[in-house]
Amino acid sequence: MSLSDRTIAFYDFGGSARKFDRKLHVPSTQKCLTYVERRKTLFSAGVDGAIFAWDLSKLFSNEFNEAQIAKREKE
Length: 75
Fold this sequence. Notes:
With 75 residues, the protein is α+β, with helices and mostly antiparallel strands. It has one domain. It has helices at residues 56-59, 62-74; strands spanning 2-3, 7-12, 19-25, 30-36, 41-46, 51-55. The strands form 2 sheets. The chain has a 3-stranded antiparallel β-sheet, with no helix packed on it. A 3-stranded antiparallel β-sheet has the order 4-5-6. β1 (2-3) and β2 (7-12) form a beta hairpin. The relative contact order is 0.16.
């Protein structure tokens, strides 16, 4: 789900209820999201016309998450 605070929110649909999983900060508000399962890639288009390809296997890796936590702690 694209949010107006320049993030994309991910939810876990594994159980019977939808559960918030994490947020990804993006350069601009994203107007369009399309997921390609065979490539594990989320494509998004920002309000500024930029198109992004997000490799979800990397975004959801422990290495990426640890780097994001370290970055936020510095701010």
